[in-house]
Amino acid sequence: MKILHFYKSYYPDEYGGVQQFIRQLAHGGQTYGIETEVLALTPGATESVLLEQHRVHRVKRLFKAASTDFSFRALSEFRRLSADADIIHYHFPYPLADLAHFFARPKQPSVLTYHSDVVAQKKLLFLYRPLMRRFLASVSAVVASSPNYLASSPTLRAFADKVRCIPLGLQSNEPAAERVEYWRKRMPARFFLFVGVFRYYKGLDFLLSAAKGLPCPIVLLGKGGQEAKLKARAAAERLENIHFLDALSDEDKNALLSLCSALVFPSHLRSEAFGITLLEGARYGKPLVCCEIDTGTTYINIANETGLVVPPADPAALRQALLTLWADEALAARLGEGARLRFETLFTTEKMTQSYVTLYRDLLNGRA
Question: Can you tell me the mean pLDDT for 172-189?
């Protein structure tokens, strides 16, 4: 079975949650004889390469507007590649995929993983909505990453008859011992960790506000559009407990996740539809701190079972949650064990892959 994924970017150009999801699904699908190809846009060199046993086709990005990468060549390349696929797998929201779908008119079944509502571009959504609704009606199946998001998204609920809920997953793994030792010598004995792309919806301004005067070091691992502003603010306000690390390799990231005292994830808007970084923390048995935004973040993090949940955009509540975990190490350990158990029960790559393979087979057999 050959699956073609189409999204605006992929490794190594971007390391976000959608890219990680596609990579995990491609890796897990090998066990089931699934051949994965990915079509993505790139600001760099156009090429077709083999990445971890799946092929990635990169076409030149022409321009970017409203968080959407555009390329006319991507339309023709999609038509060429889709002709040889058994199933097309789209990732929403990405309006160019809508256009490609109607441009190529593939006869194969199609799956759309619904990663997020359109949140920031509300004015453009008014113009995009007719195409969006037609696209969602046209695909064979829609996947929500959590029942929380299905319940809280008016767009998803309108197509509930074709929606399945399949949580995202991660592989279980142990961090490289030499990288753990490397970072153990360079980090404080206890610290809180944020991992992610510095985007507008990540709530990092509120985290900086919450951090003022706290006794606990907070490490921000990543980069992105908000990076310069956040670094300037931390310097201006002399937030000496805030430490920035650039985007690092997976081995280094996993070492830091294994060493941290808790995983802090202050995203405050619905653009954060799932929060795969929370899974990374849970995988290593870390207590989780996140906001209640009616998305998958609180499907992963259950209040007082796997971590602490606070209102969005509330620095005082976030500050109190951090202080609580810092002061009560026994509580932090209990919540961390709860996070690990929930990860192993619901969120492994194996469980996610099995669910998608079942969906793919149902589509090919006309049962979906």
Answer: 95
Q: Is the pLDDT of residue 121 over 80?
A: no
- The CA distance from 289 to 302, in Å, is 10
Any idea which residue has 């073609």 for tokens?
A: 4
Residue 137 tokens read as 């009606």
Tokens representing 256 are 């830091």
Whether 68 shows a pLDDT value over 70: the answer reads: yes
Distance CA 139, CA 367 (A): 14
All CATH 3.40.50.2000 domain ranges of the chain, comma separated, are: 2-170+348-364, 177-346
Question: What was the pLDDT predicted at 11?
Answer: 87
> CB-side exposure of 122: number of CA atoms within 13 Å?
3
**From CA 222, how far away is CA 242, in angstroms rounded?**
13
pLDDT for 368 equals 64
CATH entry 3.20.20.70 includes domain 2-170+348-364: no
Q: Which CATH class is domain 177-346?
A: alpha beta
Residues 6+ away with beta carbon under 8 Å from 114: 92, 142, 143, 144, 145, 149, 153, 155, 156, 163, 273
What's the whole-number mean pLDDT along residues 262-280?
Answer: 94
Residues contacting 97, CB < 8 A, separation 6+:
6, 7, 90, 91, 135
Report pLDDT digits (tens) over 11-57: 888 877 899 899 999 999 999 999 999 999 998 888 898 988 899 99
